[in-house]
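Let us practice reading a record.
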Amino acid sequence: MNFELNEQQLSIQKLARDFTEKRVTPGVLERDESRVYDLSLYKEMSELGFIGLPYAKEYGGQGLGYMEYALAVEEISKVDPSLSVSYSVSTSLYGGSL
């Protein structure tokens, strides 16, 4: 069994890491302390294609799988758990009905 990530998975992981470092990390402590949810970050994740990663293109998704989705969630979770939970709930719970 091969446990190495393929090029596409590595690319998504890097995109999520870069997004998190550049956009999520700045201000994360202030957002947490003030209990503010920055909806613009969620919208940016959508624009980057994270929201529809595991869903078929015919439904507006990226046509990839749950491994790619899990890699994105993992990178975001390292810095902002509230953002990653909202991402996870919208993708797994609500989007899982597709």
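A brief commentary: The chain has a mean pLDDT of 91.
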